[in-house]
């Protein structure tokens, strides 16, 4: 039911619309009943939230459109509301959450487009009311229950699963919620996130209630604090579970979400210093934060055979293959580096899956005058892992095609699938941006190994299913047996069946894998050229030398206009129009700056503002067409003309705020068109004036 994710959350909401709606005269019984419900909830101080999001103004129909979300935050609200329904059976039923599109009509005449529909609804409701004094049941099918994922979590996955969890245990509960997700056709990535959340929830609630769990009427009093703590751990968790907490925390949460979102788009506003590293007297350690089957050994072998310009100026190159080393790999690599000239290029042919290994590589580089260069398989990743499932499937397919692998990870390995799942899970809890950002921050460079063609068909459902089954099995195995090998433990038989099924599914899709992977020669040449560019100093380092403008200080993106030209336009208007002249005579108007807002982080979200980060300094023609004014503010109507970059304003009414009275906020000028329709503002059109605007972040 959620047509737009922007409808969920607190960013860009305007709660003054709620009170305008409550004061408005209802045009039909349906609206009247809704107002009755809201007034009761507000008057009884029930813990309910009502974020309202402005959607636009229809000048022809003379109506303001906004969407209101009603979100019940406390179980006790339902008990209090049921008492009220006993006193007044005509009250509408209350749901955990729902949204309503609201139209406030301006003027005395009811628009024709509204009359026929609302009259029919009102008539049917009135008949129902006359036939049965308890009209709640008849009205119920007219209410639209909100099917946002956050509500599904609370109602269907948490509340409805309590009895299964406490009566039959966690395996039965997990089977229940996975079945629900299957019915909803939840994406695999989202299933992974929810599986982790609900596993934590089950551990939390069963450890607190050793016997019977909380009942359906009080469960939310336990769930909300848990979800609140879960949400605090990351922005991704916030998006998954939705807002949690008390009504009084709403504004502080709004700021928190905005600032945490700012961190996720910080990269868009980053300006790296063009600091080139001098490689004279320095070596290079090339290592692979990757998964078996990605092709690292093949790349290392080819670099040894054909290093090209990597060995220019007397440099040498050598490789140390992890599968052939006896003893601890990284200490041996450090010794090998110390034996050779500082300018040597070392190929660390071993997977480096975690921060501890990266720290070791950095220490080796510091001790032997080298730079560390991570080579990572290129993949879009998922929300929980830097590697997408199609990349994992390809790696698995490659592994089971191997023969006589020195590390015994090949087609003869009975647990090859389990080993790759183990490596895959070593990278969990990081999305692609976080993964690459951590490597760039620590080493300053990043080389990408192409593995999949950009234009490729989606992963076949049979492969998705077998991977999903394997990931579920791995999760169960890890919870029960930790790092115990899959051939041991209570799930060994299931692992054996799954490994056999995995090989059958992957081999049946051999043509698919051969078609989607990047040819090796192309992938190798790409890696080699990237390494050569780093060695020549053609790639600027991007780590400690990075200069970031804090997004906390940026509120909106705008087209700034020349103040003197805007002032001249206003002076000309005052000289040619008596109404404007009289208006300015009574007010002290001094224009210090002029701009057209493109996106505001409170109204449109941080990401919308960040999109203009790469467009700063771009010039765009802006046409001023009219002057709108009221007793407390005035503005120039602006039209952003067509431009090559496709720059436009996210505001429904682009404008330049000229003046506001004391106590009036500049953003209220957004409502001048509505004020004009209601007779509280005036408009003067004039011959268009074209000025040059410059994109800025302010």
Please characterize this protein's 3D structure.
One of its GO terms (molecular function) is ATP binding. InterPro entries: tRNA_lig_PDEase (IPR015965), tRNA_ligase_1 (IPR038837). It is built from 27 helices and 17 strands. With 698 residues, the protein is an alpha+beta fold. The chain is flat. The two termini are 36 Å apart. Mean pLDDT is 80; it is low at 112-148, 243-265, 267-274 and 543-550.
Characteristic key phrases:
698 residues; 45% helix; tRNA_lig_PDEase; ATP binding; tRNA ligase phosphodiesterase domain-containing protein; five-stranded parallel beta sheet
Sheet with the most strands, sense and barrel status? 6 strands, antiparallel
Strand order of the largest sheet: 13-12-17-14-15-16
Tell me the strand percentage band: 15-25%
Structural class: alpha+beta
Give the fraction of residues assigned to helices.
40-55%
The helix count comes to 27
Low-confidence stretches: 112-148, 243-265, 267-274, 543-550
N-to-C CA distance: 36 Å
Apparent shape = flat
Mean pLDDT reading:
80
Number of E strands: 17
In short:
Helices cover about 45% and strands about 15% of the residues.
């Amino acid at each position: 039911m959620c047509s737009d994710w922007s409808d969920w959350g607190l960013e860009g909401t305007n709660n003054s619309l709620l009170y305008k709606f409550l004061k408005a005269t209802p045009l039909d019984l349906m609206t009247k009943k809704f107002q009755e419900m809201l007034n009761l909830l507000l008057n009884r101080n029930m813990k309910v939230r009502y974020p309202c999001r402005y959607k636009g103004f229809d000048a022809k129909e003379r109506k303001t459109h906004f969407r209101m979300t009603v979100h019940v935050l406390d179980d006790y609200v339902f008990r209090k509301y049921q008492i009220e329904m006993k006193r007044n059976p005509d009250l509408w039923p209350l749901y955990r959450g729902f949204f309503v599109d609201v139209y406030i009509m301006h003027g005395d005449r009811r628009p024709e487009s509204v009359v026929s529909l609302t009259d029919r609804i009102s008539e049917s409701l009135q008949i129902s009311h006359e036939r049965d004094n308890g009209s709640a049941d008849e009205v119920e099918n007219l209410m639209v229950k909100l099917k946002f994922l956050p509500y599904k979590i609370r109602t269907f996955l948490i509340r409805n699963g309590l009895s299964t969890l406490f009566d039959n245990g966690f395996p039965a509960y997990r089977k229940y919620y996975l079945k629900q997700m299957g019915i909803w056709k939840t994406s695999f990535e989202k299933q992974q996130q929810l599986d982790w959340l609900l596993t934590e929830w089950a551990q939390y609630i069963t450890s607190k209630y050793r016997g019977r769990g909380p009942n359906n009427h009080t469960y939310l009093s336990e769930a909300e604090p848990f979800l609140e703590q879960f949400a605090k751990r990351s922005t991704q968790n916030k998006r998954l579970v939705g807002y949690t907490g008390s009504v009084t925390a709403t504004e502080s949460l709004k700021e928190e979400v905005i600032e945490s979102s700012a961190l996720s788009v910080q990269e868009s506003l980053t300006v790296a210093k063009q600091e080139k590293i001098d490689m004279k007297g320095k070596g290079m350690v090339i290592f692979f934060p990757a998964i078996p089957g990605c092709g690292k050994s093949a790349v290392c072998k080819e670099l040894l055979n054909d290093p090209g310009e990597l060995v220019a100026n007397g440099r040498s190159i050598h490789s140390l293959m992890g599968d052939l080393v006896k003893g601890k790999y990284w200490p041996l690599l450090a010794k090998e580096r110390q034996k050779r000239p500082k300018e040597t290029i070392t190929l660390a042919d071993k997977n480096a899956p975690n921060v501890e290994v990266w720290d070791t590589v950095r220490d080796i580089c510091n001790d032997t005058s080298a730079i560390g260069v991570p080579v990572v398989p290129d993949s879009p990743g998922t929300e929980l892992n830097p590697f997408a499932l199609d990349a994992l499937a390809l790696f698995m397919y490659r592994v089971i095609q191997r023969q006589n692998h020195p590390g015994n990870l090949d087609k003869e390995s009975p647990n090859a699938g389990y080993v790759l799942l183990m490596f895959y899970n070593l990278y969990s809890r990081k999305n692609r941006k976080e993964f690459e950002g951590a490597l760039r921050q620590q080493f300053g460079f990043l080389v990408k190994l192409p593995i999949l063609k950009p234009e490729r068909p989606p992963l076949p459902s049979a492969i998705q299913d077998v991977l999903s089954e394997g990931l579920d099995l791995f999760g169960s195995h890890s919870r029960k047996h930790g790092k115990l090998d899959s051939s041991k433990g209570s799930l060994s038989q299931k692992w054996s069946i799954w490994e056999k099924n995995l090989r059958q599914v992957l081999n049946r899709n051999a043509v698919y894998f051969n078609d989607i992977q990047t040819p090796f020669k192309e992938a190798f040449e790409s890696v080699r050229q990237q390494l050569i560019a780093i060695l020549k100093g053609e790639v600027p380092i991007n780590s400690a030398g990075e200069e970031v403008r804090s997004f906390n200080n940026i509120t909106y993106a705008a087209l700034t206009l020349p103040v003197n030209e805007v002032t001249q336009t206003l002076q000309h208007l005052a000289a040619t129009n008596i109404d404007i002249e009289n208006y300015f005579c009574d007010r002290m108007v001094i224009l210090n700056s002029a701009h057209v807002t493109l996106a505001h982080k409170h109204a449109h979200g941080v990401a919308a503002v960040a999109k203009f980060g790469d467009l700063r300094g771009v010039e765009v023609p802006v046409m001023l067409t009219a002057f709108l004014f009221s007793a407390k503010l005035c503005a120039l109507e602006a039209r952003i003309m067509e431009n090559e970059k496709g720059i436009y304003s996210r505001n429904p009414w682009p404008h330049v705020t000229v003046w506001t009275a004391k106590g009036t906020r500049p953003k209220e000028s957004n409502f001048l068109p509505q004020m004009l329709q209601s007779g509280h503002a005036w408009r003067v059109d004039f011959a268009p004036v074209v000025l040059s605007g410059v994109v800025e972040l302010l």
